Structures are given as C-alpha cells and as structure tokens.
Amino acid sequence: MLKSFLITLVALLVVLPAWTMAGSAHDPVEQADQSECEEQGGKWEVPEEAAPGGCNLPTLDAGRVCNDSSECQSACIAEGSMLPGVQTTGFCYGWSLLQADCVNPISSGITQGSTCDD
C-alpha cells in the first residue's frame, strides 16, 4: 500500500507542473488566507495559467540529504539537471510547493528526470 502510494506520488511530481503540492511542515492553510500564510513564514504564490497557487510554506528539513521523497516533508530533489535513471542522493526541498525552474525528484535513490516550469 505504501509502495503504491509512493509510486503515485513520484508520478505526480514528474507529470504535473512544478507547482505540485508535495506536503507541508505546517498545518494546511486555506488558499483564501494569505495573511495567515505569511504569518507562518510562507510565501503566497499566485497561480500561473491553470496551475494551483496558494501558500508555499518552508519545510523543517530543507537541505537534508535524502534518497527518496518519503524521507522529506516535501520532496527529495537531485541537485542540478540529470537524466532519469541516475543513481544519486539528493536533498530535501525547502518549500511545500515545488515552484523552482527545474526539479528532478529522486525515488529510491534514482533520478526520475527533470521537469521544468516554462
């Protein structure tokens, strides 16, 4: 059950735009409450096109070395751009929303391929 959940989560991170919600170190914040978001140290993200926006909260484990997103509050990301299938370690992403220009999720120590926010 956990394995299929993790596979689905990684697939969503790879397929969806870089605005994918990937978990949070804090209680969820309603999208309509920008002031509460900012009070918790978050950044209010305005959606681009059809991508979801909302509260982008900092994670507590940002920068920690990881092999899989299950080890992070947000996602385990490879440093730099790498092809899919490369064995490597990564770092825990520092924000609850993946909104970087390019991210490359890592699952079980293997890169999943870079996705870029155009």
Question: How would you explain this protein's 3D organization?
Answer:
By secondary structure, the protein is α+β, with helices and mostly antiparallel strands. It has one domain (2-29, 57-116). Helix content is 17%, strand content 18%. It contains 2 helices and 9 strands; from the N terminus they run ααβββββββββ. The protein has helices spanning 2-15, 34-39; strands at 43-45, 54-56, 65-66, 76-77, 90-92, 102-103, 106-107, 110-111, 115-116. A 3-stranded antiparallel sheet has the order 3-5-4, with no helix packed on it. It is globular, with a radius of gyration of 14 Å. The N and C termini lie far apart (34 Å). Mean pLDDT is 74; it is low at 1-26.
What topology does this entry show?
Layout: H1 2-15, H2 34-39, E1 43-45, E2 54-56, E3 65-66, E4 76-77, E5 90-92, E6 102-103, E7 106-107, E8 110-111, E9 115-116
- How would you state the average pLDDT, rounded? 74
Overall tally of structural domains:
1
Radius of gyration computed on alpha carbons: 14 Å
Number of strands: 9
Helix % is 10-25%
Cα(first) to Cα(last) distance is 34 Å
Q: Main sheet?
A: 3 strands, antiparallel
Counted by DSSP, the helix tally is 2
**Secondary structure category:** alpha+beta
Shape: globular
Strand-and-helix sequence, N→C? HHEEEEEEEEE
Strand share of the residues?
A: 15-25%
Spatial strand arrangement across the major sheet: 3-5-4
The low-confidence parts are 1-26
